[in-house]
Every structure is written in C-alpha cells, then in structure tokens.
Specification:
Number of strands: 5
Radius of gyration: 17 Å
Distance between the termini: 15 Å
Strand content: 35-45%
Number of helices: 3
Helix content: 10-25%
Structural class: alpha+beta
Order of helices and strands: HEHEEHEE
Largest sheet: 5 strands, mixed
CATH superfamily: Phage tail protein-like
C-alpha cells in the first residue's frame, strides 16, 4: 500500500467534508511536532493525520512464489483545540472527533478498492500542551497484499 497516497486521500476527504463548515487546519503530521504547537496558525485548531502502524497475518497457503497475507493498517488523527466542548460558534474536540468518525467510517479511497473501508478503533485524551487539548482517534483498514 502506498502510504503517502492513502494519507493524501484521507486528508482530501476530511478537507472536502469538514472544511466547508469548520475553521480548522487539516494536514499531515508535521516532522517537528514540538515546534508545531507553538506556531499553530489556525485559531480553530488542527487535525493532524499520520500512518501509525501495520501488521500482517501469517501467509495463506503453501505457494512459495507468491506470498499472500492479510495486512492491517492503523491511522492516527490528532485533534488539537483550545476547547473540549462547544463554546459560542466554536466546535470543541468532542464535536470534531464525532465528525471525523462520521466522515471516515466506511471510507475507502479511490484507487484502493482492494482495501477494506476505514473503521474506528480508539479515541483517547493525550494531554494538554500550552492552552491546547490534544485528543487522538485511531482508525484502521485491512487489505490483502501479495508479494512475489
């Protein structure tokens, strides 16, 4: 699976379905997260998208020329906002996390039809840094991969 392409399509989906109604930055996880928080430009917060992990099931069958395995991939979505709950017209982390789940649950990017749809795995509080709360949603998908 091309991780860069898959990540770009996840970001495009979130931007298309969330940004018309939200003032929030949606982007790939930065190379330097420590510097990012202090320099965040969007007042509405951010959603940072990154590949998290993968694992493979034992190979199917005895064919030694083509190795076929079921692979599972997980993706993390870090939500960074100043508020947990809705305040005035500003959605909180709880609202944004529900929207991410709504938009991406069942999503399969174009070009990845062999992949399963995305499904939620975990949502957790990571902490607070400066004046921002940070929550993480983990979602997964599976795909059958063959290697010759």
């Amino acid at each position: 699976m091309d991780l860069n392409d898959y990540e770009e399509k996840i970001i495009a989906k979130l931007q298309a379905d969330l940004l018309p109604n939200k003032s929030i930055e949606i982007r790939s996880y930065p190379e330097s997260f420590d510097n990012y928080i202090g320099q965040m430009k969007h007042k509405g917060g951010a959603i940072l998208v990154a590949f998290q992990s993968s694992f493979w099931e034992p190979p199917e069958g005895n064919n030694q020329t083509v190795l076929t395995q079921q692979a599972a991939y997980t993706w993390q979505f870090n939500i960074i906002k100043k508020n947990l709950r809705k305040q005035s017209n500003q959605e909180g982390i709880y609202d944004v996390s529900q929207e991410i789940l709504r938009v991406l649950s069942g999503f399969t990017p174009d070009g990845f039809e062999d992949s399963s749809y995305m499904f939620p795995i975990d949502r957790s509080f990571l902490g607070r840094e400066a004046q921002y709360y940070i929550y993480q949603i983990t979602m997964g998908n599976t795909i059958e991969e063959s290697q010759e």
